Amino acid sequence: MGSRSDWETMRHASETLAKLGIPHECKVVSAHRTPQRMYDYAQGAAPRGLRTIIAGAGGAAHLPGMTASLTRLPVLGVPVESHALKGMDSLLSIAQMPAGIPVGTLAIGRAGAVNAALLAAAMLATTDAALAIRLEKFREDQANAVAETPE
Ligand SMILES: Nc1c(C(=O)O)ncn1[C@@H]1O[C@H](COP(=O)(O)O)[C@@H](O)[C@H]1O
């Protein structure tokens, strides 16, 4: 994530990954404020064995796109809600990538963070049968938790 202030949103991605038993790490890396850290992180990710990167940032959210430009790993972008423009700036700066460097863009805020984790899980589950079973169980539990009546 681009700042520690994004953690309130991005912790939902981490918690969802943890529920699914997916090992992961959480880092603050900014294209603007810590460009060298971003280069090192993105270029080192695949050689270290990471499989997917979830990048959350708000406002002029260049982190997901810049990260995607520096790694062949799939990058999922989470637009963090900004104060001034309610996350529309984050959403558009993450989604409107030029052809050639894709960022899989999720919804603004908490839902996007949760879904980034679930999408990462779905991608990883294509080559991990045990995770596929855990993901199916997660979906089943989720469906069972939805009441049929409003009261
Ligand atoms: N969008 C970016 C990037 C980046 O894209 O590299 N680095 C920080 N930020 C964003 O700035 C917002 C305000 O950050 P502060 O709360 O630290 O001032 C955060 O949402 C962060 O993601």
UniProtKB/TrEMBL annotation:
The keyword Coiled coil does not apply. PANTHER family: PHOSPHORIBOSYLAMINOIMIDAZOLE CARBOXYLASE (PTHR23046:SF2), PHOSPHORIBOSYLAMINOIMIDAZOLE CARBOXYLASE CATALYTIC SUBUNIT (PTHR23046). Its EC number is 5.4.99.18. Pathway: Purine metabolism; IMP biosynthesis via de novo pathway; 5-amino-1-(5-phospho-D-ribosyl)imidazole-4-carboxylate from 5-amino-1-(5-phospho-D-ribosyl)imidazole (N5-CAIR route): step 2/2. Keywords: Isomerase, Lyase, Purine biosynthesis. The lineage of its organism: Bacteria, Pseudomonadati, Pseudomonadota, Alphaproteobacteria, Acetobacterales. It catalyses: 5-carboxyamino-1-(5-phospho-D-ribosyl)imidazole + H(+) = 5-amino-1-(5-phospho-D-ribosyl)imidazole-4-carboxylate. It is an enzyme of class 5 (isomerase). It comes from Teichococcus aerophilus. Belongs to the AIR carboxylase family. Class I subfamily. This is N5-carboxyaminoimidazole ribonucleotide mutase. One of its GO terms (molecular function) is 5-(carboxyamino)imidazole ribonucleotide mutase activity.
